[in-house]
Amino acid sequence: MNSAAALIPESITKSDSVIFLAYIDIQVVGFTQIYPMFLSVSMQKLYVLEDLYVDPAHKGKGIGKALLNRGKEYTIEHHGKSLILQTEINNTENHLYERLGRLKDLQYLHHDCFLDIK
Predict the structure, then answer these.
(1) What is the three-class DSSP state of 28?
(2) What is the DSSP letter of 63?
(3) H-helix or E-strand spanning residue 4
(4) Which among 61, 39, 57 has a CA at the least distance from the CA of 48?
(5) Which domains does the chain have, with CATH numbers?
(6) Are 68 and 52 in contact (CB under 8 A)?
(7) Which helix (H) or strand (E) holds 94?
(8) Residues 6+ apart with CB under 8 A from 83
(9) What's residue 33's pLDDT?
(10) Residues 71, 32 contacting (CB under 8 angstroms)
C-alpha cells in the first residue's frame, strides 16, 4: 500500500478519523480515511476525505466508486455539509471524481503554507 497506510494505526488509536475498508473475500483491497472538520467561515460541519487507495490489481472493479459513495453516505448520516476531496492537478483519478459529481471549488480559494518540519 502507500505511505498513508502507515498512519492508519495511529489514527485508529487517536480516534480522529473514520476508516472504511473494501474487501474481496477476506482480502483488503482498498480503504478511505475521513476526518471531521468545522469551517467557521461558513459555519458548517465538513468532512475531509484524505486518503483513497485501491490495490492496483483491483482497479476498474468499482471499489474506488464504492468507497467514495460510502464517504458521502457517512457525511450525510453525520449531517455534514460537504465531503472535501483534495487531489493533485495531475492525479490520474480526477476523471473518476468528476464523473461521480465531485465539483471543483469555485467559491473558496485554498492557500497552503508548506512547512519544512522534520
Answers:
(1) strand
(2) H
(3) helix 3-6
(4) 39
(5) 3-99 (3.40.630.30)
(6) yes
(7) helix 94-99
(8) 34, 46, 47, 48, 49, 71, 72, 75
(9) 92
(10) yes
What is the DSSP-derived secondary structure letter of residue 56? G
Write b or e for each residue in 36-66: b if 16 or more Cβ atoms lie within 10 A of its Cβ, otherwise e.
Answer: eeeeeeeeeebbbbbbbbbbeeeeeeebbee
> 70 CB contacts (<8 Å, ≥6 apart)?
20, 32
Which residues neighbour 53 within 8 Å (Cβ) at sequence distance 6 or greater? 1, 2, 4, 5, 30, 31, 32
The neighbouring-strand residues paired with 24 are 27
Q: Are 20 and 31 in contact (CB under 8 A)?
A: yes
3-state secondary structure at position 5 = helix
Q: What is the pLDDT of residues 22-66, one digit of tens each?
A: 999 999 999 999 999 887 877 888 898 888 899 999 999 999 889
Q: What are the tens digits of pLDDT across the range 63-104?
A: 988 998 899 899 999 998 888 877 666 766 666 666 666 556
CB-based contacts of 59, cutoff 8 Å, min separation 6: none
